[in-house]
Write a structure and sequence with these properties.
The structure holds 2 protein chains of 2 kinds. By secondary structure, chain A is mainly α. Chain A has helices spanning about 1-35, 45-55, 65-85, 100-120, 125-155, 160-170, 175-190, 210-215, 220-245, 255-285, 290-315. Chain B is mainly alpha-helical. The chains are: A mainly alpha, B mainly alpha.
């Protein structure tokens, strides 16, 4: 009982500590590919620390939603962090929800961010909110389908069980449906973390931004929470990708050595995924908003295909 | 023997990747990326043949695999790129059906071909994945021929159909006699050359390779 509480605490601390680092690493790798020197990998920590020291400037027209939204989004994302396996597959809170809960917690966070973007009544906020919802309407079904393809294979929607069983299967888990679902999920991860073909995280050019436009009205401490929430969400999406599709090396039971190894393996996995993301970001240009359905329907079709091929291979 | 080969994990992976490359062709709007995806597809097909050759040890299939690699994944894409460069065609492909609907139709075609293959019921789970993949390749190739306006894409569509037939043949028979395969390769190569010349002629006469324009009467 106590060990489980400690593990949960530890997981939250790890997530909070690693999330800005991941952001910084991706930025650094991107800078490397663009032959720049780039900011230090710890820059996101400095940014958040700086923002936390500043006061917020709030428009006098906003309602309580504007104040509540960052907190609710952040809490929703962190709650998802209690369910997503990061370094130990047997999550203490796995009884509380499965992958559907994670998807809806992300949706809750997104919903409140979009509401807050409308609340201040600025034109950019509304534009960002509507775009975010437009993208989300295509991301969420694809996300569900692609994880369901793996869940079908394993026979459970519980994330802890999925990663346990897949890691127990070893290399024999690599199958057509696994591969197709992985490709589909990778495209979704690009959209979900707001990376380049979908959204540009580095831009402040008003007409192209999605996430940045939504949080344009925030400043100071609230902005720090919003930014940290986005980074945590990115880390969680990456660890979903890592621990559902290739969970090998994750600790299946409580034990100091196991967990230490699992943590190192996890770090390597997300750095590799981050490098992949950075390569995608450097080699593609931002797409026109109305071409995004094409990309996302590729992902939707791949996850659909993955389920179909599961049925074909298993001779359903 | 066939069960062992086509039920194996590596084979299924290759076949899944072939399906992915087919969807890459369906999902891209650039001629070059379509041709590149076709090259990848043919390369994967050659790998499938290579795996069959490894597990059966027949020298014929090795030759077929190497020929597939040389002709379909190197020579034919090269001819395509040569044609695209020579007639200075616009890089974007024109469509009758948009990208998202065509992807969805592609998915439906995969399901339909699976049910068709299952209803044949001749071979049960022997190579049903490979067979339904080959059937879907044929139908998606046909769909690409119907839904794309550029003559080059119609050429590509027929080659995808041919790839599907190749996959079906190799999964059903474990490699056809070398003589038959050689004949098919020769046919494909000559077909591509003739179609290429035809596209040059179409371009010379109509100053476009948009097949939509072929319907217009010219006095």
């Amino acid at each position: 009982m106590i060990s489980q509480i400690i593990i949960s605490f530890f997981q939250i601390i790890i997530i909070l500590a690693l999330a800005p680092l991941l952001s910084g690493i991706i930025k650094k790798i991107k800078a490397f590919f663009q032959i720049r020197k780039g900011a230090s990998v710890f820059q996101p920590y400095y940014d958040i620390a700086k923002l936390l020291r500043k006061d917020s400037v709030v428009s006098e027209n906003v309602s309580w939603i504007f104040h509540a939204a960052p907190v609710i989004s952040f809490a929703a994302v962190l709650t998802a962090g209690l369910i997503v396996p990061v370094f130990i597959s047997d999550m203490p809170f796995s009884f509380a929800g499965d992958l559907i809960a994670v998807i809806y917690l992300f949706a809750l966070a997104r919903f409140f961010t979009a509401l807050a973007s409308l609340d201040a009544g600025s034109s950019f906020g509304g534009m960002g909110g509507s775009r975010e919802m437009f993208v989300a309407s295509m991301v969420e079904p694809a996300l569900m389908l692609s994880i369901f393809a793996v869940a079908l294979n394993v026979g459970s929607t519980n994330l802890s069980q999925i990663s346990q069983i897949v890691s127990a299967m070893g290399l024999s888990a690599i199958s057509p449906y696994h591969l197709l679902a992985f490709v589909a999920f990778f495209i979704i991860a690009i959209a979900e973390t707001g990376r380049i073909p979908v959204d540009n995280p580095a831009t402040h050019l008003e007409l192209t931004m999605i996430h940045e436009a939504m949080i344009l009205e925030y400043s100071g401490k609230q902005l720090a929470i919003v930014e940290l929430g986005a980074m945590v969400k990115q880390l969680l999406v990456f660890s979903l990708l890592a621990n559902i599709f290739f969970p090998w090396g994750i600790a299946n039971d409580v034990g100091f050595v196991n967990m230490a190894i699992a943590l190192i393996v996890f770090l390597i996995k997300i750095i590799v995924l981050g490098a992949l993301m950075a390569i995608v970001e450097t080699s593609t240009a931002k797409w026109r908003l109305f071409r995004l359905p094409d990309l996302l329907s590729v992902s939707l079709m791949l996850s659909f295909l993955s389920i179909v091929s599961f049925i074909i291979v298993k001779g359903g | 023997m066939e069960e062992v080969i086509f039920g194996s994990n590596i084979m299924q992976l290759f076949i899944a990747l072939i399906l992915v490359s087919t969807f890459m062709i369906l999902g891209s709007t650039r001629l070059y990326s379509c041709v590149r995806a076709f090259g990848i597809q043919s390369f994967l097909l050659a790998s499938v043949a290579g795996v069959v050759a490894l597990s059966t040890g027949k020298i014929d299939i090795y030759i077929v695999a190497i020929l597939t690699l040389a002709i379909k994944s190197i020579l034919i894409p090269y001819i395509f790129i040569y044609i695209i460069r020579e007639i200075k065609v616009k890089r974007e492909i024109a469509l009758y059906v948009g990208i998202s609907p065509s992807l969805i139709i592609g998915g439906i075609l995969v399901v339909i071909s699976y049910y068709l293959i299952r209803s044949i019921n001749v071979i049960t789970d022997l190579s049903s994945f490979a067979l339904s993949a080959s059937m879907s390749l044929v139908s998606i190739g046909l769909f690409i021929m119907i839904s794309r306006k550029k003559a080059i894409m119609q050429m590509l569509g027929i080659l995808i159909m041919e790839n599907g037939l190749f996959l079906g043949a190799i999964s059903l028979t474990n490699g056809m006699p070398l003589l038959v395969e050689l004949g098919i390769f020769f046919d494909v190569l000559i077909g591509v050359l003739i179609m290429g010349i035809l596209i040059f002629r179409i371009n010379k006469t109509f100053e476009t390779i948009d097949t939509d324009m072929l319907k217009n009467l010219i006095g």
